[in-house]
Amino acid sequence: MAKGKNHLLNLTLALLCAFVFASCKDTNSYTVHGNLKGIETPELYIVTRQDSAFQIDTVLSKAGKFKYKSKSEILQPVVIYMEKGNIWVTVWAKNGENIILTGDITYPELVLAKGGEVNDLLSGFKTANSALIKKKSDPTLKIHVMDFVQSHPASVASLVLIQDFLSDMENAADTQSALSLITGEAKENELYAKLQAWVVKVRQTEVGSPAPDFNMISTKNDTVRLESFKNKYVLLTFAASWLPLCETDYDKWLSIRKNFPEKELGMLTVSLDENRADWEKLAKEKGFTWTQVIDSAGWSSSMVSLYNVSELPCNYLIDKDKKIIGSKIPIDSVPTALMKLKAEI
Questions:
Q1: Can you give the CATH number for the domain in which 72 is found?
Q2: CA distances from residue 239 to 153, 202, 226 in whole angstroms, order as listed
C-alpha cells in the first residue's frame, strides 16, 4: 500500500512540475541559445526587424556559447553575423520559441537550429543532404529541394531552401517552378514576394530578353543610352578599380576593341568606384578609349539593380536589335560569340 502511495505522490509531483514549467514558459519572447565551434571573435551582431526598421544588437560569445532574447509576434529571420560579419547564419523565430543553434561555422550552411517548425525542417534537410550541400553546385541537390517543396508546400522552410539552393544558381526557371508549388501561409510570407521579384529581375536580363534601357552620363559628359549604339553590337561591362578580379579582364577588353572596331561594336564600361578619380586614373593608364560611366553609388547603383549584377566583373553582350545575346558572359567567350555573329551575316 505504501508503494502505491509513493507512486501516486511521484506522479502528482511530476504533473505539478510539468504544469509549473508550462506556466513559466515565456510566450512573449523567443530565445536563441548558441553553441558553435570555430568562433574566434567574441562579438556577434544580431540583425532583426522591429516594425519596419532593422535592429542590430550585439552579444558576446564565450567559448562559442551565447544567448540572445528578443520579441516578435510573427515568424521572422534572425541573422547572426560572426567573425566581423564575414560569416553568418539565419534562424527563424517568433514568441514562445526556444531555439538551440549547434555546429561548426567553418560550414555555416550546415549549422543546425532546433526549435520551431521551420528550423526543425531545415535542420532535417541539412542533415540528410550535408554531403551535397558541401559540394554546393551538385545538381542532385536541386532535385532534393524540389522534392522537399512538394512535400512541404505551405512551410516557410520551403521558401528558405528555394532562396538558398535555387536562386543562388541564378536559374529563374527552376525558382519559378518551385514557387508555383507554394501554398497556404508560406505564400503570404514576404520571402515569397521577394523571390517572385527576384525571378522577374533575372528574367529581364536573360538571353533573348530586350536589354533594359538606361540614361547615364559618361566621363566625357555625354548622355549614354542604348540608342547611343544604333546599328551596333554592344559589350556592356561592370567593374571596379578596387577589385583585383577585374584586372584579368582589362587586357581582354583592349584585345576585343582592337579586333572589333567601333563601327561594329559599341563598348560601355560601368565603374562602381565611389571615388571617380580612381577609375579615371585606371582608364587613362590602361588606355580605355571606349565609353566610360562612373557610378559613384557603387553597389547601390540603379544599373546594378537594372542588370541584376551580383558580382564583378560582369559582362553582357547585346545585339543590334538591343536584345541580350550574352547574359553574364565570361569575357573569354565574347570574341568567339562576335566572330560567330559576323560569320552569320
A1: 2.60.40.1120
A2: 40, 19, 19
